[in-house]
Each structure stands twice: as C-alpha cells, then as structure tokens.
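Supplementary Methods S3. Complex input for the zinc ion-bound model.
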Amino acid sequence: MRFLKATACGLAMTALLACQPGGGADTASLEAEIKTPPHVSVLITDGERGDWTLQITRDPAYDAFAFVRAGADWRSTEWVSQTLGVSMERIDGMDAIVFAPNAAEVATFAFRPYSGEVQATYTPRIPFSDGADAIFLGAFNMIPLTDRAAVAALMGEASNHTDEGRDVPLSLITDRPILYAGERHTGRLDVKAHQGLYAYLGEATITEGESFKGVIDPGMPDFITKGLDEDLVRVFTALDKRFGEPLDQTASLLVAFRGFDEPGFSLRGGVLPGNMMSFEISGDVLKTENPRIQPYLQRFFAHEATHLYQGDTRYEHKRHAWIGEGAAETMSLQIAMDLGLADAAVQLEQYAENYAFCDEALKGRTLEDAIRRGNEGNYDCGDLLALIADAAIGEHSLADLWTAMASRTDGDGYTAEHHFEAMLELGADPTLVERMRRFTSETVDDPLGELRAMGDAVGIEANFEDGALVAFSVPATAR
Ligand SMILES: [Zn+2]
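Predicted complex, serialized as structure tokens:
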C-alpha cells in the first residue's frame, strides 16, 4: 500500500495574520459593503442542506478572477452561475470566474463544497463524523485579472502572477459556530482569503495534548486517538534534534475520521500557516486495532511534521514541490527507522516503489512536466533525490540542507537553484549536482539508470534483479 500517495502538503504558505474580529451577520451593512468597489469581495453563505452560495462583487476594471488553488478541475462542473453573463470556466489549467463585458457587478454561484481528493491541494471540505465541516478558505482565494486572456497567460500557475491584488476579502456567513485560527466566531467570519486556513464549522471540542491542541473527530477509532499525542511527541522530539530547535508555537490539529467504507486505509494530510496540520484518516482495516498500522501512521505524522519544521520556506513554483515532498518522505522514514518503527524491509519496500514509480513518471517527460500533470514524481522521485542529496553532503543532514537553502531565499519562495546551490555549499560534488540539475529539468532517456548512477556516486547500494530492487542500503551519513 502506498500510504502517502494521497498526501497533499508542502503547499505555498503565507504568513498567518490575525483575522478581523467576527460579529453577527448584519445584512444591511453587508450589502452596503459589498456594493462598494474598488474592492473585490466574496461572500459565502453556508446553507441548511449543504447548499452554499458564493457572491462576488467586483471592481469593473476586472472581468476575470482566477482561483489560486486550481491545480485540478473540480469547480467547473460543481459551481452553477445564478447570474446572466457570468460563468465558471477552466482556462489552461486554472479555474476562473469570467464576467461578460456587460454583466452585472455582483454575481452569485451555487455550489457544494467538494469533499473528495483534489491533487496537490487541500481538501476543500473535510467532513467530520458529527456533522461538522472544516472548510478550506484558501479554495476561495482569487486573483483579479482584466480578462480571460490574462488567466490563460498564467499558464496554470498562480505564482506567475506577480502584481499585487491577491487580497480579495472574504466573508463567511453561517448559523454554525465557527472556529478559525484558534478564535471562536458567531454568525460571520471576515478574513483575507490568502490566509488559506481551515474554518471549522460546528461545535468544536478542543483537545490539548503535550504536543498539540486541536479538534479530533469524535468518531475516530479509539486506538488512534489514544496514541496520537505520544506518537507526535516522539516525532517532534526527533525533528527538534535534526533541525536543532523546537517549533516556534504548539502545533494545532484538525483530525477527521472519514469512515470505514474504503478498503485498506487512507491517510491524507496538509500543513497550513500557524503550525496547523490537517489529517484525514479512513479505511476498513481501522475497525479493529491493528499493530501493523502504527508504523504507517507514525511515518505519515513524521512526513507532515517535517513540513512544519520546513516552516514558511515554501517553493516559488509548484514544479519544485519535489524538493519539500522528497525531503519529507526521506526524513519521515529516517525518523521511523530511528524510532524502531521501520526496518530494512520497510525501507526496501519504499525504495523499490520509488524507483519503479519515478522511472514510470519520467518516461518521455521531465520531472517538472510530470508534476504539472498531477502529483507524479513529487514523492517517489523527490524521495530518491533527497536521499541522494543527503548522501552527497556527507556529515550534513537534510535538515542542514533545508536551513542552507532557506537562508538563500531572502524570505521568498525557494527554487531548484537554491537547492542545488545549498548542496554545493555543503560540499556536494559539482558533477553530481549538475547531473541532478539535468535530471530534474530535462527529459532523461533512462530515468532508472540515471537514478542508479547518481546513487552509486554517493555510496547508495541498490541491487536490481529483472528491473526490481532486491537489496538496498544507504551510507551511515544519510540515515
Ligand atoms: Zn507532504
């Protein structure tokens, strides 16, 4: 089972700002507010039976609004325009609301917040088993643009938009209690959408452990809830040691149980500003306590927690997501092995999959291309590349590499260049770094052969029989 295949995390993050004070829904003043350009604003209303509406008020200078989180096409079929001349469209890999030239300045859409998996972003709605919902407000973050052509010019990547104007204010109206950024609100929540946190709608019981505070689904199997704090303490302790310092604030968690229906089990997670982690756990094997689940859970927690320690250092372009995801994959297994929760057999299984999946993902296309078409390569190729990098920098660790890379970004997002420069700074062989640079940006004829050659060069022993990995070991400095 590929336990982290569906993990969506390490996404672009922005600094957490305190939200504006909440207050009751005052319809009259609200209407006055949303009818006052130049600000573009979004008003979302939580209906009684899962029917939601979104009302967007625009400045006439803008005819198109591109959704920042639009890697996958899920809005164009779900969102229904209620306003003549205004539509939800899929334009070159982005979702956008488009106003016809003579359309009204206020448009309304009916939709149901999507609760399925969306590749490479946060689940838009995470349902909890007691009827509460966590709504990802970042899903409503839009870039105001002049027209459809300006959306197309972004080529599917919001980071290609460099102008100001991402701060479309967003208001959420609901009868349910709201928990947002640790604060409770009633009736209405006003935020800047780009803060991109979850708003929890429902009666939230906050659990405080040694390692976290947060909301845990009351339907979660007991054996998971019971072990959660202890598991996280172990993971955080291991990460404190590797990164040299603890987190700047206690982690906050949203942990949803998504039922026993699926065969096997599924773990999905995300990391958000303010040291928040969202976990979604489901599957029929969780009906009874199963000791074999523990190592998977621990690695899943370690993967997500590694992203917390990676901090606000985010990638500049999503094509470089392999750097953060790969490092989190490699470190989570290193930590699990440290803690005695994974052994050489688990390591062999993980890397056998990585070699096979990465080889497949890169057949006839570059890593950056593979990532653009989905999440392919981020985890498998990323893990192998992170392990090669770790072995290439000798006594330095992946955490050191992260710190060296982060210090080169001047507070902006990192790129593959920052990563390679940091490798060189920590003593990696320039020939290997150049080879890795080509591997990640050009089409490679024989991806498996190239991965094996780079591994050989840094002391990773990988023996294959009939194309399958049968023995694997890494140098002591990369454990
Ligand atoms: Zn991740």
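Residues 132 and 435 are 50 Å apart (CA to CA). The two ends are 23 Å apart (CA to CA).
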